[in-house]
Amino acid sequence: MNTIHHLGHSQSERILWLCEELGIPYALKRYTRDAVTRLSPPELKALHPLGAAPLIEDGDLLLAESAAIVEYLIAVHGGGRLKPGPGHPDFAPFLYWFHFANGNLQPVMLRRMTLGRALPADHPVLTATQERLDKVLALVEERLGQAPYFAGDDFSAADIMSIFSLTTMRLFLPIDLTPYPNIRAYLERIGERPAYRAAMAKGDPELTPLLV
User: Fold this and answer.
1) Domains and CATH numbers, the chain
2) Most buried by CB count within 10 Å: which residue of 6, 38, 58, 68?
């Protein structure tokens, strides 16, 4: 059985959710952020040099990085489910949006959060970063007006990769989603998934998912 090392309010929620969607059994070890620094506790640093979550243990394997873990679990334990193959018409959109989550969406949100704490509101670098975030969110809004899920008609791992930034990350960088009706409708659809609700209840039982 896989062991998931989960840091509360972090991208490791993706791994719990994936396992719930695929019915992959797992043992859960929860960790809490430092109340002052909001960083990982020493127990996670003892497992991995970066002290980050998620981490999974599968036999002798210790694997970090949420995208790598998602791909590993789908390939090794999930029978390839939630990932369209090369012959599927949604294959290229899946690849794009799967990598968009950690390649564009999450980085620009982190950059906006960090610069917002370090620079005055009228600083040109902060302004440029906000403009980039607005463009990224507009692209997500456009996509979710074209299809019910990121890859297309079917729910996939691209959705599992994307949701953290649109929900839990807003604990760190509040964003008003009122101008984005397609994103809000999408989050409502995700919130109806039993596997998502189960994963969040197990991993972050004190948190009400930010689905609005």
Assistant:
1) 2-82+197-203 (3.40.30.10), 91-193 (1.20.1050.10)
2) 6
* Neighbouring residues of 109: CB distance < 8 A, sequence distance ≥ 6: 133, 165, 169, 173
Give the span between the Cα atoms of 37 and 107, in whole angstroms.
Answer: 20
Amino acid at 114: T
Are 31 and 16 contacting, i.e. CB atoms less than 8 angstroms apart? Answer: no
Cα–Cα distance, 33 to 2 (Å, whole number) = 23
Give the other-Cβ count within 10 Å of 171's Cβ: 11
Query: Residue 102, Cβ neighbours under 10 Å: how many?
Result: 17
| Contact criterion met (CB below 8 Å) for 136 and 112 | no
Q: How many residues does the structure list for the chain?
A: 212
| pTM tops 0.90 | yes
Please give the Cα distance from 173 to 130 (Å, whole number).
Answer: 12
Mean pLDDT of 183-211: 96
The arithmetic mean of pLDDT across residues 149-169, rounded, is: 97
